[in-house]
Amino acid sequence: MNGELTVGERLVRGNPGEQIFAFAAKIYPICRSITGDGVRKTLRAIRSHIDLDIHEVPTGTEVFDWVVPPEWNVREAYIRDQRGRKIVDFADSNLHVMSYSIPVHRWISLAELKQHVYTLPDQPDLTPYRTSYYAENWAFCMPHRLLESLSDRRYEVVIDSDLSSGSLSYGEYLHKGETDEEFLLSAHICHPSLANDNCSGVALLTHLAKCMAGLRTRYSYRFLFAPGTIGAITWLARNEDQVKHIKHGLVVSMVGDGGGPTYKKSRRGDAEIDRVLAHILRHCGLKPTILDFSPYGYDERQYCSPGFNLPVGLFQRSQFGQIPQYHTSADNLDLIAPDHLAKSYRIIAETIDILENDIVYRNTNPKCEPQLGRRGLYGAIGGDKDAAGANMAMLWILNLSDGRNSLFDIAERADLPFALVRKTAQLLHRNGLLARCDDEKPSTT
Ligand code: ZN
Q1: In the chain, pLDDT over 70 holds for what percent of residues?
Q2: What digits encode the pLDDT tens for the residues 98-116?
């Protein structure tokens, strides 16, 4: 009904689900950790789509109460039996080596091997994902059934890794808007071959940044691709003066499965981002879960630490730790699908659309209701099915547009989808029944 597309409508053009899936599949095989060449390779892959700044922070750099750790790289790793057969091989799956394993090469008994093997007895065919970033150790991960099948012989264990002075790598991309108020979008890039956690989030944000390039927006959008915990801490330590610009933020992880959607509120609990996500999920047609903030999860823990207390929530499909595939070899490309990625992407695009278009109007005819029938406005929007909703939207907008309520405030109070409220307000505006307020937020269409 209006020729101009909004920012949110422009973002969802094309075939986002297929493109996000293709990029997630491309970075899935890479062996990532909190540092090392796998992270750099992933960042370079992102940079092939967007103008990403890649930062390197040297080992030993103090970042608040933490220190950037040595850089970890692994070339090969395997367990071999006395006949020379490889029992597990890093070349087959990078999950077979515990992340940050120190180098080892020796022959050991089965009993000793078992001290250095992680399995999932309840899911005997899956390989777990394990890390030991800050305690020196080495270990392999494998299916429980495979471990059980090993005979009481000696085994050669080889992990050709090194932990040495290097750097922590993270990537940052800023889309500049009309104001320096920022929307932070953050994804962790430290997990190896796990598709949902978090190739999905990295790929979704890469696609979003790519689609946003060239669009005029009110907000500036900062995309951060950093290793979990230590990466967010490092970024915050280096950008302490900048965070005052962050008005909204989302950590994005596990967005490719068919569960949820799940939104975990910021520590503030009533930030605009919290209200907007709750609104969208209520109207998304799926079975959403809204969680209160807790100091456990992903990098919202750092952004919402009391010294920052930023308005940053966590968006996911299934909640972390709540699906059997979580942190196992079953979090592979079969777990994620273009349709789910597209739906997650649309929810984030809709979030942006609301924040970009949240205008305050004033009713130009506030004394009693204006006569809508005379202007042909009853049933003017959509088909008959939608007419009732549109009529309700008209009445709510006219009643609440007193210069104090924004369109989003009205959508929340009327419990109507924001897009319907926005389109209806445009119609009323064109008919002279609404005027944009002096203190209005600039339009982006
Ligand atoms: Zn994880």
Answers
A1: 96
A2: 999 999 999 999 999 999 9
Last residue of a domain, one of 304, 336, 356: 356
Range of the domain at 104: 71-164
- Two tokens at 94? 């990078």
CA of 376 from ligand 1 middle (Å) equals 55
Ligand 1 center to residue 45 CA distance, Å? 21
Q: How far is the CA of 328 from the centre of ligand 1 (A)?
A: 10
User: Does residue 153 have a pLDDT over 90?
Assistant: yes
Distance 197 CA to ligand 1 centre (A): 5
Same domain flag for 191 and 313? yes
Residue 224's H or E segment, with its range, is strand 220-226
Q: How confident is the model at residue 389 (pLDDT cuts 50, 70, 90)?
A: confident
Residues 196 and 107 in one domain: no
Alpha helices for 357-417 (secondary structure H): 384-400, 407-414
Residue 428 alpha carbon to ligand 1 centre in Å: 47
As to burial, measured by CB atoms within 10 angstroms (0-12 exposed, 13-18 middle, 19+ buried), residue 273 is buried
Give distance in angstroms: CA of 317 to centre of ligand 1: 14
Q: Dihedrals φ, ψ of 392, to 5°? A: -60, -40
Question: Which pair of structure tokens corresponds to residue 423?
Answer: 């389109």
Q: How far is the CA of 110 from the centre of ligand 1 (A)?
A: 30
131 domain residue, yes or no: yes
**What's phi and psi for 82, nearest 5 deg?**
-70, -20
Q: What is the pLDDT of residue 427?
A: 93
Cβ-contact 144, 121 below 8 angstroms: yes
Distance in Å, CA 391 to ligand 1 centroid = 46
In a domain? residue 31? yes
Whether residues 200 and 238 share a domain: the answer is yes
Is there a domain that residue 2 lies in? no
Domain boundary, last residue among 294, 324, 356: 356
Q: What is the pLDDT of residue 361?
A: 96
Q: Examine the domain organization and report whether 282 and 383 are in the same domain.
A: no
Asked whether residue 444 is assigned to any structural domain, the reply reads: no
Q: pLDDT tens digits for 58-72?
A: 999 999 999 999 999
